[in-house]
């Protein structure tokens, strides 16, 4: 596998071409094409996009909604920012195709609070698309209408979780909902709703134009397509890179220019911490779930600094609704500090906290609490030595 | 929904598709611990106590929210589940001010009970003990957030059952807490002081502002003449509060209260009967003004005014409809005013020495007695209000063996009661009592319901209504009502009240008289009643109330001999000069 630029290619297909093709297809065929492509959501959870669209399309309920999750908040992730800055036309086209596919005329971009400067650019693209009749009333002479508005987030990490995002859009406190019902049946204002990541929507026009078979040929196994990675940390050329799914971490680091590796954080603070010995692991939902972020730490970094930093982030960002996440993150942070302060000196003393991490993964209400203990388990297991052995259980 | 087959702990059973795992397990006799779950409220799923393992799932499922699906395989006490539950419980305990002996809810606390059941003797997640943080003092309700476990049952109660919504989670992560708008405190937001949040709190984070100490001091002061009044709903709540089966225990209750050392044990039922006479005449007078005089300033429908939670609610939310509220004070406040005038005279004591204590199923009554309007006797009409729970606590402290007491009777002058007064404790009771009396006043005949039981206004439905057509032959002076169909409605719980009041405001309903109780079930479900509360508990209390009505000798307010004496010797006539001075009032708009 290798670097492969499609979404970020210099040569871009003409704006509206995929939309035009979609409108010549039936809604079912559009959904079918996306489903056959096997594309999985680019936000991190990896739910198959076509399945989501199919469910929303089949759901009963008026005023269906297309929501773009542009609340890019995972530490170390800045790939959606690039897409919103340079490829907003493809994003809006992807959302419009999504609207056509599920039978919706209303789209919302939920934009990260820190990205307000992107609004004028996106709105300008929207105006252009409306002037070309790619957006707005009676698109391309059909009876399909679709428009997009931007709503700003307020800075809470948890609102990247789709049901919290919906609560926030409804003007409520950003907290995850219980599922079921799933948003495809009852989302924004109880309407059938699809919530997809920026990159997911941007990928859609390419799938429509080139077909699902073409897309399937990219990537590895059931992990199809290309994927953007924000590479940062101890690298010579930090930035956004586009690779085929299934590429190894080593391949990425080579392109970005990395010489000294102690650890790599894949998928943001809530992702996986790998050691220098794991660089041949593949970026795929089966091996290393690829969020949007790859952070490199060289051998000068104290991994306990890294851990404390991540846990401080989660303690700050837990919404406080469910007990395991609210109380758990605080105690994991306390434990990390106790290790650094020399108050915990053995694996044995850590046992209850590994149990806690496991319960948080199994019992938290949303992805935040289910993944925040990853860094604790990974870093202590892989990087910390105790007299009675490595930190892991 | 069709039935589906599910396997719970290895046993395959058939349940209705779509019911929750929690309910299916309950049906199968498998108990699952819960904290944020409450049968009166929507599902929150935030405490994570009810985690269970579902075969094929990556994470554990919460039983309270998750519906069963065909062939679901559920395990409720696998190693994974046990570890998860113990960990969650320890986390909740670690964040809780575990100081059980000094807590109002000691031995009646869901968290404590779960800790005991799970044999939590050591908590590795406990850091430094959490200090008490009593945040605010309002007349009826106090909060100690150090005991809060963030289950949000109070928040959902306030919003869903009462449509008041003055408390919300504020902040996030471990510093999240339940607070009022801008941290102003319950006393400075449109809280109705109904106390329904207290009844649904699983721990001791919410409790009444206690006046036990002041009451003991009054009893122990030889200078004071301490009279006590007991609200209708106490007699079906006190046994429950003492851990005994729900039953009507009026005689034992009187004996126990007398045993505490009060100088006179009297009955709010007496002034409930009085309320019926005054309010009944007020209704007839309003009807006459509208139907005969064509007076457009007289507001109909008239609503009741006994429930102080409802009064505060209308003052905040529907101030434009205040003219619709009956001018009658609540029975508690009528009692207070009379205790320092009529009763003091009868007993020959200096009214300045009279201390009036009421036992109420209610926290809003603590607020009501502080209102500036409630001083018409020349003194504070009611000095102290105890909830049913506080009374139980005093009985226990005094070492009174409640269950083995012999029945005793109330003292005289303001101790007689009728079945009509007793049913004030249940939703629909005031309406039924009012109809029994008002119908008889205007027609000269008993209301034509078998056994005087006006079934259409009884029961737990949120909004009930009934229509009663007057006969052609009326009593002298009331001919204007001949053939008129009197339309009445009964509502309980403030969310239901809001629905009905919106219709009243919009002119979409044409009722003449509406009974409104702030609390679900009426006073029997009041914020001062025993904890827990749920539909089953309220049904039992309601049954006990209607049993008491059925066995009482007098069942109509106007038949109460002491009420007849009160009018003959003191008030002279309903809505008369003395009544207006002592028994009626008006309310004010609040922001």
Structure in words:
Chain A has 393 residues and is of the alpha/beta class. Chain A folds into three domains: 17-217, Rossmann fold; 220-297, Ubiquitin-like (UB roll) (Roll); 303-390, NADH-ubiquinone oxidoreductase 51kDa subunit, iron-sulphur binding domain (de novo design (two linked rop proteins)), CATH 1.20.1440. Chain A is built from 15 helices and 13 strands. Chain A has helices at 17-24, 27-36, 49-58, 79-86, 88-102, 119-131, 162-169, 198-210, 212-217, 249-256, 303-317, 323-340, 347-363, 367-371, 374-383; strands spanning 64-70, 104-111, 147-152, 193-197, 219-220, 223-224, 226-233, 239-244, 263-266, 272-275, 293-297, 385-386, 389-390. Chain A has a five-stranded mixed β-sheet with strand order 8-7-11-9-10. Chain B is of the alpha/beta class. Chain B folds into three domains: 3-92, Ubiquitin-like (UB roll) (Roll), CATH 3.10.20; 95-124 and 131-208, Alpha-Beta Plaits, CATH 3.30.70.20; 210-591, Rossmann fold (3-Layer(aba) Sandwich). Chain B is built from 20 helices and 18 strands. Chain B has helices at 21-27, 79-94, 110-117, 153-161, 196-200, 212-220, 238-241, 250-259, 268-291, 308-317, 331-339, 342-347, 364-368, 388-397, 419-422, 429-443, 494-505, 535-551, 561-571, 577-582; strands spanning 3-8, 11-16, 51-54, 61-62, 73-75, 134-137, 141-144, 168-170, 177-179, 206-208, 225-230, 264-267, 302-303, 354-360, 384-387, 463-469, 485-492, 513-517. The A-B interface holds A 156, 173, 178, 180, 315-324, 326-331, 334, 352, 355-356, 358-359, 361-365, 370 and B 43-48, 51, 59-60, 62, 65-67, 80, 83-84, 87-88, 91-92, 94-95, 124-125, 127, 149-150, 168-169, 171-176.
């Amino acid at each position: 596998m290798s670097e492969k630029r499609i979404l970020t290619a210099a040569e871009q297909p003409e704006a509206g071409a995929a939309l035009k093709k979609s409108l010549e297809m039936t809604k079912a065929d559009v959904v079918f094409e996306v489903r056959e492509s096997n594309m999985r959501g680019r936000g991190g959870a990896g739910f198959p996009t076509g399945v989501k669209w199919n469910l929303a399309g089949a759901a009963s309920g008026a005023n269906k909604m297309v929501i773009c999750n542009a609340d890019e908040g995972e530490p170390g992730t800045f790939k959606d920012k690039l897409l919103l800055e340079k490829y907003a036309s493809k994003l809006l086209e992807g959302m419009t195709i999504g609207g056509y596919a599920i039978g919706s005329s209303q789209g919302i971009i939920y934009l990260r609070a820190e990205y307000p400067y992107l609004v004028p650019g996106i709105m300008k693209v929207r105006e252009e698309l409306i002037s070309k009749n790619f957006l707005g009333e009676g698109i391309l002479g059909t009876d399909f209408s679709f428009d997009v508005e931007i709503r700003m987030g307020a800075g809470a990490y948890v609102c990247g979780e789709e049901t919290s995002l919906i609560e926030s859009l409804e003007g409520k406190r950003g907290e995850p909902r219980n599922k079921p019902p799933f948003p495809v049946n009852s989302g924004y204002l109880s309407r059938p709703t699809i919530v997809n990541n920026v990159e997911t929507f941007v990928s859609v026009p390419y799938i429509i134009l080139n077909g699902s078979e073409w897309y399937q040929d990219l990537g590895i196994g059931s992990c199809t397509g290309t994927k953007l990675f924000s590479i940062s940390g101890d690298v010579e050329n930090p930035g956004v890179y586009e690779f085929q799914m299934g590429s190894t971490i080593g391949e990425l680091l080579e392109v970005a220019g990395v010489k000294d590796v102690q650890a790599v954080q894949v998928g943001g603070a809530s992702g996986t911490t790998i050691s220098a010995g794991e660089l041949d692991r593949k970026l795929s939902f089966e091996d290393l779930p690829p969020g949007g972020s790859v952070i490199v730490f060289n051998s000068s970094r104290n991994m306990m600094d890294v851990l404390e930093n991540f846990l401080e982030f989660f303690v700050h960002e837990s919404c406080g609704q469910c007990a395991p996440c609210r109380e758990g993150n605080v105690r994991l942070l306390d434990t990390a500090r106790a290790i650094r302060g020399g108050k915990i000196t053995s694996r044995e003393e850590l046992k209850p906290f590994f149990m806690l991490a496991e319960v948080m993964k199994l019992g938290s209400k949303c992805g935040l609490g289910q993944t925040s203990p990853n860094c604790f388990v990974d870093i202590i297991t892989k990087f910390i030595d105790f007299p009675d052995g490595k930190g892991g259980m | 929904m069709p039935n589906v087959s599910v396997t719970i702990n290895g046993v395959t059973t058939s349940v209705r598709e779509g019911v929750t795992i929690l309910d299916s397990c309950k049906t199968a006799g498998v108990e699952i611990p819960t904290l944020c779950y409450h049968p009166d409220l929507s599902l929150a799923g935030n405490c994570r106590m009810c985690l269970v393992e579902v075969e094929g799932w990556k994470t554990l499922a919460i039983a309270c929210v998750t519906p069963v699906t065909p062939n679901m395989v559920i395990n409720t006490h696998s190693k994974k589940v046990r570890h998860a539950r113990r960990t969650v419980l320890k986390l909740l305990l670690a964040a809780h001010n575990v100081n059980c002996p000094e807590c109002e809810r000691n031995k009646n606390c869901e968290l404590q009970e779960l800790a005991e059941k799970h044999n939590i003797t050591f908590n590795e997640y406990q850091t430094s003990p959490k200090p008490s943080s009593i945040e605010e003092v309002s007349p009826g309700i106090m909060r100690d957030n150090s005991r809060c476990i963030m289950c949000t049952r109070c928040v959902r109660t306030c919003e869903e059952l009462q449509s008041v919504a003055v408390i919300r989670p504020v902040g996030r992560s471990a510093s999240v807490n339940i607070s009022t708008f801008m941290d102003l405190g319950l006393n400075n937001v449109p809280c109705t002081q109904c106390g329904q949040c207290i009844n649904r709190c699983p721990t001791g984070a919410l409790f009444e502002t206690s006046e036990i100490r002041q009451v003991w001091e009054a009893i122990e002061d030889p200078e004071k003449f301490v009279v006590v009044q007991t609200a209708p709903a106490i007699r079906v709540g006190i046994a429950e509060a003492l851990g005994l089966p729900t039953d009507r225990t009026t005689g034992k209750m009187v004996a126990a209260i007398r045993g505490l050392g009060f100088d006179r044990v009297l009955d709010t039922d007496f002034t409930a009967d009085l309320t019926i006479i005054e309010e009944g005449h007020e209704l007839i007078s309003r009807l006459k003004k509208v139907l005969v005089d064509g007076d457009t300033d007289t507001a109909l429908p008239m609503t009741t005014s006994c429930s102080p939670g409802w009064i505060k609610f209308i003052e905040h939310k529907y101030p434009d409809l205040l003219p619709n509220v009956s001018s009658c004070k609540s029975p508690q406040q009528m009692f207070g005013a009379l205790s320092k005038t009529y009763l003091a005279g009868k007993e020959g004591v200096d009214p300045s020495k009279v201390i009036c204590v009421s036992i109420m199923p209610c926290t809003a009554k603590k607020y009501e007695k502080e209102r500036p309007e409630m001083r018409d006797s020349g003194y504070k009409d009611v000095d102290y209000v105890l909830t049913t729970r506080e009374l139980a606590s005093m009985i226990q402290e005094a070492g009174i063996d409640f269950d083995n007491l012999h029945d005793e009777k109330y003292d005289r002058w303001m101790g007689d009661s009728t079945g009509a007064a007793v049913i004030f404790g249940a939703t629909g009771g005031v309406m039924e009592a009012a109809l029994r009396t008002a119908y008889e006043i205007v027609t000269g005949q008993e209301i034509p319901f078998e056994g005087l039981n006006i079934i259409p206004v009884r029961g737990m439905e949120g909004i009930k209504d009934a229509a009663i057509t007057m006969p052609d032959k009326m009593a002298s002076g009331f001919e204007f009502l001949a053939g008129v169909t009197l339309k009445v409605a009964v509502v309980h719980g403030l969310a239901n009240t809001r629905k009905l009041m919106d219709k009243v405001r919009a002119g979409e309903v044409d009722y003449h008289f509406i009974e409104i109780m702030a609390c679900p079930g009426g006073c029997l479900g009041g914020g001062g009643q025993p904890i827990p509360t749920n539909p089953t508990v309220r049904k039992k209390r309601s049954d006990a109330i209607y049993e008491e009505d059925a066995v009482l000798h007098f069942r109509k307010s106007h038949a109460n001999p002491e009420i007849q004496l009160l009018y003959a010797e003191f008030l002279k006539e309903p809505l008369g000069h003395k009544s207006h001075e002592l028994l009626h009032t008006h309310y004010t708009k609040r922001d």
